Amino acid sequence: MTALPAESDSLLLDLRDQRLLAALQCDGRLGAERAAEVLGLGVRTVQRRWRALLDDGTIRVLAEPPRPAGLGATMLRVRVLRGRLDVIAAALAAREDVPFVDLSATGDEILAVQFTRPATGHRDRLLFRQLPGAQAVTAVTAATVLHVFAEARDWRLDVLASAEREALTPPPVANPTAGTRHADPTDHALLAQLASDARLSATALAARLGLPESTVRRHLAALARTGALRTYVAVDVRRLGLTVDANVLLRVAPGRLDAVGRALAAHPAVHGAVATTGEANLNVAVWFRDLAELYAFLTRDLGALGVDAAETVIVGEAVKRPGATRVVARQS
Questions:
Q1: Nearest CA-CA partner of 184 in 222, 214, 210
Q2: For strand 109-116 and strand 100-104, is the pairing parallel, antiparallel, or unpaired?
Q3: Environment class of residue 148 by beta-carbon count within 10 Å: exposed (0-12), middle (13-18) or buried (19+)?
Q4: Which of 27, 99, 109, 325 has the fewest Cβ atoms nearer than 10 Å?
Q5: Rounded Cα–Cα distance for residues 175 and 183 (Å)
């Protein structure tokens, strides 16, 4: 059984860098002065360590585009003939409506997420024609996401005190959709620039877009104030010593589904939890240091929640996730 490649101790982030990473999870555009004040570090130390983490790819700070109203999601499990996994994975990863593509450690299954639009009466082409028609595909199952308890952007590295986290987190937005209805061309242009680097300064953005810096600052403040500018920190979790990546498909009694989902969403190892249709009605994504920790989660944590059944799929490789896509060669 395989997992993420282990990192040597010399490559693991120390506690200082972990805390600086966690600070950016609170606010992707956090200033070094504020971070230094709350964390008790020097401003130059914060600037230097953030730059190192960004430059070596340990973290990427991204701006999430506003999601259209009514956007849904489907969890896909695609069984593929051995030796043909990369072909199907490449095709799925190339799609804009597929943000997640994982390969199972067993080498015969792809787990993916597809964004879906509200029902229009037309059957989805990917699900009903393209995947079933591929000769390399032996089976396709799909489960509709009914409720999201936690997404990847919600995961937090648990190394900050609650008071520190509160001090670094911007105040909640009263109406998160308010900023998406009246966005003008300047707003859209700024969000497009920030999509791949949400820490671009107002000065850099003004130079790229040919706008006055005062205009850029005004629009950035409005986007943040209305919730239209939301940041997400993509992390190379191997540098945190998290070498086991897994998806756990759970069967929970309907009357307990909401309580179990909420409890697991708060678990420090869970970086995704959704309720779905199907026999397995709760899907959670987890990171652990080793298989012993995964075993403890399955037997102790899930056992205490009264889960009826669990199927565990170890991820052999994450092909596509926000902020990172592996290039997989297409085979003829």
A1: 222
A2: antiparallel
A3: middle
A4: 325
A5: 15
Instruction: List per-residue pLDDT tens for the chain, 332 residues long.
Output: 345 555 556 789 999 999 999 999 999 999 999 999 999 999 999 999 999 999 999 999 999 877 777 889 999 999 988 778 888 888 899 888 899 999 999 888 999 999 987 655 455 666 555 665 567 888 889 999 999 999 988 999 999 999 999 999 998 776 555 444 467 899 999 999 999 999 999 999 999 999 999 999 999 999 988 888 999 999 999 999 999 999 999 999 999 999 999 999 999 999 999 999 999 999 999 999 999 999 999 999 999 998 999 999 999 999 998 776 554 443 33
Q: Which two tokens stand for residue 73?
A: 């999601």
What's the N-to-C CA distance of the chain in angstroms? Answer: 29
Question: Which parts of 211-308 are beta strand (E)?
Answer: 230-235, 244-251, 270-276, 282-288
Helix ranges (DSSP H) in 68-134: 85-93, 125, 131-133
Residue 99 contacts by C-beta under 8 Å, 6 or more apart in sequence? 113, 115, 320, 321, 322
Q: How far is CA 79 from CA 135, 150, 202, in A?
A: 11, 26, 47
Helix (H, G, I), strand (E, B) or coil at 157: coil
Q: Within 13 Å and on the Cβ side, how many CA atoms surround 185? A: 2
